[in-house]
Amino acid sequence: MASKIALVTGASRGLGKDSALQLAKKGFDIILTYQTKKEFADEVVKDIESIGQKAFALSLDISTTLGFDQFTSEVKEILDSQLGSAKLDALVNNAGIGINESFETTTEETLDAMTNMHFKGPYFLSQKLLPLLNDGSSIVNTSSGLARWSYGGYSAYGPMKAAVDSLSRYMALELGVRKIRVNSVAPGAIETDFGGGVLRDVAEFNQQLASQTALGRVGLPDDIGSVVAFLCSNESKWINGQRVEVTGGFNL
Ligand SMILES: NC(=O)c1ccc[n+]([C@@H]2O[C@H](COP(=O)([O-])OP(=O)(O)OC[C@H]3O[C@@H](n4cnc5c(N)ncnc54)[C@H](OP(=O)(O)O)[C@@H]3O)[C@@H](O)[C@H]2O)c1
């Protein structure tokens, strides 16, 4: 049987990388993206190939729609020439960074950057990719625990993730006619390069967040990727339009 195919944005590192690997373990071929770290993306391609699946890395800047037509053509070219003219079965909108800045000093430029990266980018990239998605496919948008609770310094970031949760519901509603499911995954605090890796590298901060978590630690990338892979698979075929929080029980 032919492999299913997933496109995962921002999979050179962190949560996107783990999602791509977990999807490959479930039998998906992967098209993954990076923004600057091509060498990291090439390593992820090798890791996926060693699992026994095909993988291809493409460059993408999610913060501007200018490159989306070109990117969509590149995805189509890979599907046609390398993957037997198949279409995508899953899209994981994951790419992005956070900014910690007080409400008082956040500039219009910073707010625009967060809007473009976390809301406008996934909105129009998903729209562009619709013709390349199979009916019955699954879209996972990456939200954040910060859409449910507030943490000082994230006023330009958390509300964008709340918008992602809302967008997932609207997409699920309108794309249901094609049996395309759309859900959000909302990770809590996870040890990645996010925020300069502060959560992973500053022990005091790490412990403070662990103490607010029912399971007593902060998250690791592999706490998230398996949930993303589940939501992309048929095992979750009746989960649609949902925000799935994956935090170990943070701020309950
Ligand atoms: N870690 C957490 O605690 C946490 C919690 C909740 C939600 N999230 C969300 O999870 C997602 C992934 O975060 P992460 O922790 O895995 O971060 P990460 O380790 O810093 O990885 C970020 C990924 O996004 C790519 N990227 C960055 N800017 C981009 C841009 N403008 N266009 C396209 N790709 C870009 C990076 O590519 P390069 O490697 O090429 O730079 C990398 O692959 C983000 O949406 C984030 O908001 C993270």
TrEMBL record:
Q: Name one GO molecular function term.
A: oxidoreductase activity
- InterPro entries per the record? NAD(P)-bd_dom_sf (IPR036291), SDR_fam (IPR002347)
Q: Spell out the protein name for this chain.
A: Short-chain dehydrogenase
- Oxidoreductase as a keyword? yes
Q: Which Pfam families match?
A: adh_short_C2
Give the family per the record: Belongs to the short-chain dehydrogenases/reductases (SDR) family.
The keyword NADP appears for this protein: yes
Protein source organism? Pedobacter ginsenosidimutans
Which keywords does this chain's UniProt record carry? NADP, Oxidoreductase
